[in-house]
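Entry:
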Amino acid sequence: MHSPKRSPRRALRGAAAAAALLLAAGCANPGVGSDRDDPAKPVTLKFWHGWSAPGEVKAIDASLRRFEELHPNIHVVATGNVSDETTNQALRAGGSDAPDVVSSFTTNNVGQYCDSGMWADLDPFMARSHLQKTKVFPKTLLEYSSYEGKQCALPLLADAYGMYYNKDAFAEAGIARPPRTMSELVRDAKKLTKRTRNGGYERVGFMPNFRMYQNSPDRLLAQWGPTYFDGRGNSRLAAEKAMPEFFRTTDALMKAQGGYADLEKFRTTFGDEMSSQNAFLTGKLAMHMDGEWRGLMLDEAKAKFRWGTAPLPVPDDRPETYGRGYLTGTVVGIAHSSRHQNAAWELVRFLTADTKQVVRFANAIHNVPSTKAALKSPDLDADRSFRTFLDIARNPYSTALPPSTNGGQYVVSLRDFAYDVEAGKVPDLHTGLRDLDARIDADTLQSKS
């Protein structure tokens, strides 16, 4: 997955728009079924994925070679660095140029992939293979790879979000451990913030601003475990108790460290997230929300300070949920237009459900394994920082974004709204949230039309 570069290089708005077109297009080849091919006969499968970093590509190519050794009659031709938009265009067109097996880094779009029928329902394949999905995959990962009971995708490694903290900065500030509640986060962030004589910053305790790196609001909001939609699929953010609590917390974080304007000015001095000028790596942040991949990058960059990992803090009135975090991941499925669906299923099953394969791939690209057995495997990377994220992935309170027929557009709408809130442009939060609900519902209706 998932690559640390996944989120920066994937534009949510573009992915949501492309998926909406996919839904409108409907099923390209409704007559194609899984009874059309014999998986024991020689066949070539086309597999499109989004990995692009050399180490990631090497790892997925090695996985495909292992699959071919087990299935010598099946040859896999992989195409990497493929966006959702490109894949969706090919699936709409169908034909011999379309892929057989597809993967996506955008779990928000699963609702549209399932609802449109362009990704085949995998339940019949699992039934014939005697694969009991609830015994193989964690509940949260199954939820973000299905929609309204249709399992059109399966999880292929996962990402978990937690906290990285600078142990040297903590020692300097006299802080014994990472914060576990939101009030502790505000208190520690203030202690860790260091201003310069001219009013700027040498270091910020915890940057809450939503435009920074992985700080999309839905990720920190996951610590409250919000419910985005009601039973009818309508947005219910205005009725969600977590929303005002969340924005009060981010506002308190900003005020404790100098205010939105000063923090935003400091944010613009940060280097690229994936570069050697990353703000946490260069000491400009004492605490930082990020995914499990960051630990490997810090080691490779030979960070000049001692660092540690921990779950993100939780609301003060929910201390029993400490250890939770935001989950997402890569999903993989079979194109409905594929004329080699049974052979394609063999590849999907190998990549997602073979314990040894899942562990080897997870270790290779430092992502969280996506099966229950792999999460418990003694062969899993024993690195302590990585283990923090494995525990977050196992935590029963950890959550993922719910799928929707409008794909990730509702996340884009929430993000844009959060930009206005943090900048003080929303005078009445409740009214603003009701307008946000109406906007999300309108987008959902449009995607269905």
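The chain has 20 helices and ten strands.
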